[in-house]
Design goal:
111 residues, 0% strand, 73% helix, 4 helices, mainly alpha
Length: 111
């Protein structure tokens, strides 16, 4: 995801949460997410690490820590929604191919 696109998503979350520092908070949130991703790569889906680092970082720079926490939870919820949609679409396509009698293997070219 490109930085401007990700900053746009964060800015929208900050706006709807009523934060007064929308742009600064968006970039701090992205920095916090990158930092926690690099530091805690071994934790599955960074369970709790992104939220904790956002809470600490937002408090350290003088922004409302609860807004950073909610943005990270919103980002994680959005990721989960798209994972569920993707898996559902792939599963439905596979189910349709299996019930129609088609093979799941790609056709081999006989040249």
């Amino acid at each position: 995801m490109a930085i401007p696109e990700a900053a746009g998503h964060c800015r929208a979350l900050f706006y709807f949460l009523g934060s007064e520092h929308v742009v600064a908070g968006a970039f701090i949130s992205l920095a916090s997410a990158q930092f926690s991703g690099w530091m805690f790569w071994f934790v599955p889906m960074q369970a709790g690490t992104a939220e904790g680092s956002a809470l600490v970082l937002f408090g350290a720079v003088g922004l409302a820590p609860h807004v950073g926490l909610m943005v990270e939870i919103g980002r994680k919820a959005r990721r989960l929604v798209f994972i569920v949609v993707g898996v559902t679409v792939l599963g439905w396509g596979t189910f349709r191919r299996l019930t129609s009698g088609e093979s799941l293997r790609p056709a081999e070219d006989e040249a």
